[in-house]
């Protein structure tokens, strides 16, 4: 028998060699087909991006998308131009909202979560046993509680037990099922999903200082009112998440105590607490509803001694299938798949009122409706009120009492004016973010008698409040 060396290679059979060559050709064929498919897919995607119109606005994210940048040599050599071009093409993919919605639904079906959902972006735990600091404003030492705050103190104490009882049914409703999406809590309660923004605190110093300065600058005959709206989380935060939000009532009371005499502070936190079993806040949007705004306007009219019409005199309008801003904020398919009814109310004297819309410098007047028909009402229904924020609006009513009101507001204030068409002869509406005149001069020039600051608590304790001082000095 012939002996083989241990290191001598084995001889392949013809069958083995054939199989080896076959596998090689198959691998090459699969690779070629894969490259071919990739080229086709890439080409189809390229044609799709080139031929289909690019998106210009996102209904989901409630914003206008990036625009193609203007070329300049400086921007080109700095790299800014090419960066902005890339951002434009990335931001304006055709059918952007449809693709995002499909992606969110896919994640929801398979239970996939983003990092933001578990990182709780923008949400921090709060030590409820440690008082939240309130910094002294510049002129705090010379301030006294407002007369309205003093007058309301007794009623506040009397209503406290009722308020706590009401809140036990809502904000202290037990350990509800919830998730956290991009810093917003999404609660499942009574078979429906509700998204809640949480408040981490705030002093409101800029708000207090600005209002006190307006009081000094304006004629004593101009009445000034402060009406800050709570977030829905004041009433609907489950007990097992209460450590992540502060008492908004305490924030409101702190602000009211530092407003000068001659500024009337209106406590709508307590008023709304009596109605938490009603639809006073949207589940899918960050605003209050038309009903919540009605209760706030009613309290304002009562405090100011105005004529005020009962809700039964208004015509009710419903828009079905509304999904608001909270879908954009959370990207939670549960919010998108659980729409609600958007309800607004129009006053009986609407046909006898004239609504004028102006640019933010009070020029270029055009007459059109206060309550507007909007495109895509299922997402943009809140624009029903005046069509948006970037304007000055004047409403001339059929009331002849010589009273003129200006409402300085954020978007929460958009739902208020319609309830006051029977209370004032003229109503001006100005957003603090989009007003290009000196507000003191404007009030004097228009003969305005009442000034109402109304906004959500985020604006009163956040950066928006700093814009109030700009309105006074610009």
Overview features:
474 residues, 38% helix, alpha/beta, elongated, eight-stranded mixed beta sheet, three-stranded antiparallel beta sheet, 2 domains
Notes on the structure:
It is a single chain. It is built from 17 helices and 15 strands. It has 474 residues and is an alpha/beta fold. It folds into two domains: 53-112, no CATH class; 113-473, no CATH class. Helix 7 (205-217) packs parallel to helix 17. The longest helix has 38 residues, at 14-51. The radius of gyration is 30 Å and the shape is elongated. The chain starts with 13 loop residues before the first helix and ends with a helix.
Q: Between the first and last Cα atoms, what is the distance in angstroms?
A: 109 Å
* Fraction of residues in β-strands: 15-25%
Largest sheet: 8 strands, mixed
What is the mean pLDDT? 80
Low-confidence stretches: 106-172
How big is the Rg? 30 Å
Shape: elongated
- With strands numbered from the N-terminus, the spatial order across the biggest sheet is 7-6-15-13-14-12-10-11
Number of beta strands = 15
Task: Specify the structural class.
Answer: alpha/beta
Number of helices: 17
Total domains: 2
- The share of residues in helices is 25-40%
List the helices and strands and how they pair.
Blueprint: H1 14-51, E1 57-58, E2 63-64, H2 73-78, H3 80-91, H4 96-110, H5 115-119, H6 147-168, E3 177-181, E4 184-189, E5 192-197, H7 205-217, E6 223-229, H8 233-236, H9 248-257, E7 263-265, H10 268-273, H11 290-304, E8 315-322, H12 325-330, H13 333-336, E9 340-346, E10 354-358, E11 366-367, H14 377-380, E12 392-396, E13 404-409, E14 426-431, H15 439-446, E15 450-456, H16 457-461, H17 466-473
Parallel strand pairs: 6-7, 6-15, 13-14, 13-15
Antiparallel strand pairs: 1-2, 3-4, 4-5, 8-9, 10-11, 10-12, 12-14
